[in-house]
Each structure stands twice: as structure tokens, then as C-alpha cells.
Amino acid sequence: MLKGKTAIVTGSTSGIGLGIAKALAAQGANILLNGFGEYESAKAEVAALGVKVAYHGADMSKPDEIAAMVQACEAELGPVDILVNNAGIQFVAPVEDFPVERWDAIIAINLSATFHGTRLVLPGMRHRNWGRILNVASTHGLVASAQKSAYVAAKHGVVGFTKAAALETATTGVTVNAICPGWVLTPLVQKQVEDRAKAQGVSVEEAKKTLLAEKQPSLQFTTPEELGALAVFLCSPAADNMRGTAINMDGGWLAQ
Fold it and tell me: Which of 60, 204, 208, 245 is most deeply buried (CB count within 10 A of its CB)?
């Protein structure tokens, strides 16, 4: 379905980003990976699906490096048809104790990078009258949790930005939508689980169970593969008129 298309997926050396990259590649899209993780194995996994794969190590907190990533993608793989803004970081602390540098980094990577990537690829998408911009937000883009003020603020911002960009492209062949996962067992969440286990003096498995029980009624983690399938749907002709949505895949979190 996506043969001949080119996709940038940020934060895609593992977790949700890699799951989405593999799902798009399985539909024929060439992929530019990005992230600070070990990328050779990620490249191999995507290349095994029979598409062209490139990697760029742009720091998503730096606009100049985001621009360099887009330019590198265009030079190596062709014009950007699909942009998945997925890169994200997390830090947990009460507002009064939240380190200023951590706040700034979370806003830069989780929110501002979404703007910078979008503004850079949008002119080409408009010119070709086709494009898909998928912003990976979170259930925390729709509801809050304590001690996650920066992350919640950034993800709410991503959802708002998604709506605004979708309105600006509403009469074009470019769509902009947000995906809002609940708990996914990514390296980011794994660290939270391990911190919880240590703080509560329980096993990692027990910490996983209590984490899910607090928020996610299904008591199951959403998987990167499930989110990848949703991304593929949003890139399909069936989603041509889905614009500015924030789709939660969260095991019932927001149904409560």
C-alpha cells in the first residue's frame, strides 16, 4: 500500500517508534530511522522487510539537527511522504522540585520537535498533495497524572498542535492525526517500572501489575505492533478524511 513512499520515524531505534517503522516498511515504505539507541539492529530488522533504510542521529531538541535529518532523508531516500513524530523523554517529580533543565528538555523533544519536523516537511507534502503526519502523543495528552507536569503539558500540546495543523491542511491531501497510547512496555516505561519496584520493595513483575492496575483496566500493555497497525491504517486511503483526531489505544484507561 505504501510502496514508493518515504517515511521518517523519530525515536525509532526501539519501542513504539521501531514498531511503527516496521509496520510502515511491511507496507513498502522506505524508512529513515532516528534515535539515540543502538541502531544497527533496528536497521537490519527494517531492511529485512525489503525496503531501503537510512539512519540519522539528529538530537530532536535541536532545530538545526532536525533540519539536517530531513535534508539527509530527501537526499538518500526521496521526498518525505510520512512523518511520525515519536521521539520522547520522561522525568517524574513534583512541580516544585522539577529541575528546570528537565522541563526544558521534555518540552523541546516531546513538543517543539513535533512542530519543527512538521514545518519542514509540510511544504513538500502540500506541493505533492499527499502526506501523512502522525504525532505520537499519549493518554497523557488527554488526561493528567501527578508528578508528570512537563510530560503532560508537552503531550497536551502535541494534541492541540495536531488539531491546528489538521485544520490548516483540511482541504489538501495531507492529514495530521495523533496516536495516544496507554502503557506500552518501552524502555521509557521499563525504567518507570524498575524505579517503582525499587521504591516499593517489590519485584519488577509485581511493579508491572500494580502499574497497569492503577490506570489500564485491560491489565495488558499495548504493544508496538498494535500501534504500528494503527499507523498503517492512518496512512491508508480509508483514513483520508480522518483529520485532527487523537486516537487512544489504552486498554480502557480513558473509558473510566
Answer: 60
- Residue 61 CA to residue 81 CA, distance in Å, equals 22
pTM over 0.70: yes
Give the model confidence (pLDDT) of 130-175 as tens digits. 999 999 999 999 999 999 999 999 999 999 999 999 999 999 999 9
Helix (H/G/I), strand (E/B), else coil: 147: coil
Instruction: Give 70-124 pLDDT, tens digit per residue.
Output: 999 999 999 999 999 999 999 999 999 999 999 999 999 999 999 999 999 999 9
- Structural domains in the chain? 6-182+223-248 (3.40.50.720), 183-221 (no CATH)
The C-alpha atoms of residue 66 and residue 71 are separated, in whole angstroms, by 9
CA 159 to chain centre: 12
Give residue for cell 537490519.
Answer: 44
What are the cell numbers at 210?
Answer: 500494580
| Distances 164 to 92, 161, 167, 187 between C-alpha atoms, Å | 28, 5, 5, 31
39 given a catalytic annotation: no
